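Weekly modeling sync, notes
Attendees: S.R. (lead), two postdocs, one rotation student

Agenda item 3: backlog of single-chain predictions. S.R. asked that every request posted to the team notebook include the full sequence so nobody has to chase files. The rotation student volunteered to paste the first one in as an example of the format we agreed on. Action items at the bottom.

Example entry:
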Amino acid sequence: MPALSSPSAPNEAATPRSRRRHSNESMQCNFAVQVRNQHRGANACQNKVCNEHRVRQRLRLASLICTVLTSCACVQAAPSVWPMPYKSVVPGSAALPTRLSAPPRLKFFLLPRLQSSPLLTTAFERYAKLTFPHTAFSDSIDSVECGAGTFSNANPIEKFVISVSDCDESHPTLNTDESYTIATHSRHGYIPSYVSATAATVYGALRALETWSQLVKFDFDCGTYYFASVTNITDAPRFPHRGLMIDTARHYQPLAAVKAIVDSLPYAKLNVLHWHMADSQSFPFQSLSRPRLWRGAYPHERYTQGDVAAVVEHARLRGVRVVVEFDMPGHADSWCVGYPWLCPSASCTTPLNVAANATFDLIADLLGECTGRKKSSRGAPSGLFPDELLHLGGDEVNTQCWEQVPAVARWLKARNMSADDGYAYFVKRVAATAIAQGRRPVQWAEVFDHFKSALPKETVVHVWRRATNVTQVLELGYNVLRNVGYDNTSWYLDNLNVDWRGVYANDACAGVPSPLCGLVLGGHGEMWGETVDASDLEQTVWPRLAAVAEKLWSAEAHTRDVSAQHVEQRLLRFRCLLNERGVRAAPVRNTKAREAPPGPGACESQRRRS
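Predicted structure, as returned to the notebook:
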């Protein structure tokens, strides 16, 4: 198992015990390098047993020693967990990896005897398949290929026990505790006998399962799974809101594609699907109160309310919140297909008609189906989208139509309003509707840029423009979601020329004074859909979304240096893990995102020629 701490991670280097540990690691690392140098290429045969086999076994052992250690400088010594655990990691001292039961028991993942959780029972079944994808064949443990001394002599680990403080399975929220610990327990000194995890919530337990699944490896020569080091981990996210936006208006994403992308999010400990449901091109959502709205959808490309509920539940089981967005008053031409009076005129279709109370009645009805018109509470989700956040858009509003259409212009004049005043009136009125229905409105940065502190304090400002003064937003007491758009460190994943290093160089608190960073809730990778449909969604999103994920989960000190060798090494491995799990993640080193490999090669070596 690769090492789990970063050179910049907090450690106990000041203590004598820590100095002894690092010294010991250095000696073991030097030994490993010597083994490689001395035996590389040897294959002489004696008594029909080739030294090649012994060499292979010793090289494997050397590689394991290298990758287990924190400070080793071996070429392949890179931590394997993505994202990097946040709080602390203490590598174990066992020189040899420990086998897992082979084949792993059907009930390898367990809750304590007096606890039960349908959500975790389902997760155990899912993670058994993810953690143990290969068929083990333990009868080959003593074969020449495997060799004695590959694994410790301890009994194999046979169980992973997760203890949860609160087994409530209500929909996760911004305040859900996702912290967890993982510890190994020994009967004979440092040799582990079983592994345990603790978590405050079932959703923290899901994060523990993901970390453990990335620590377990399969040895093909020995035909067994192993856990390469005795490891204690204490972990929690840096930001509570870590997500991906998908756009189902520019191109429809079939339900299977939406669920598949939801499946992939927890692999990087992402916990939000921001669903940009409708835009100028299409309105695919079924409204029961306003049934003609989805006449603005592409033919046969719609989501029924049952479809939406299934996605939200699919996400809940994976610890993923679903935040829906209906962008308004701009980006809403498709609304007027079914209800033409929503637009200022037939020839001037955007923004939505600010002069008609009927516009706001329709919006209240639409949002009411999403919210249930009340706040969700523990054990009582409300509406199709129970999450506390409701995204109302508000970006890129050109108010010229309001000035050009006589009826709207007269309405503004009668109230002593400019077109910009009308914009303020609109976004504040729909925000008040969301608040009255038990939700916190999320609005794009232009809304704040125009109206500053006039916005309700419940508003979350979604910053995507460099022009927005994030420090000012925070100083005025607003929470922020942040993902700067179109530049060389963009988290807008439709920027195909921005590679993972550019994404990783960005930070949700960049330029923000430390005392204000606590008001930043997190951010998203944004997947605008102009050039994305089901055929290329996953390879456009991944693996660059993994860079966003680590920046939002791991400690800032761990992720400050994008040039650190271990970062790319871990990302290469994580991309291969995604592929192994059926996620169509593109090669890490592509010159341009979502391009295919240029030719044959191993997963970790695939790159696009410049």
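Discussion: group reviewed the output briefly. Residues 165 and 200 are 5 Å apart (CA to CA).
Action items: rotation student to repeat for the remaining queue; S.R. to check formatting next week.
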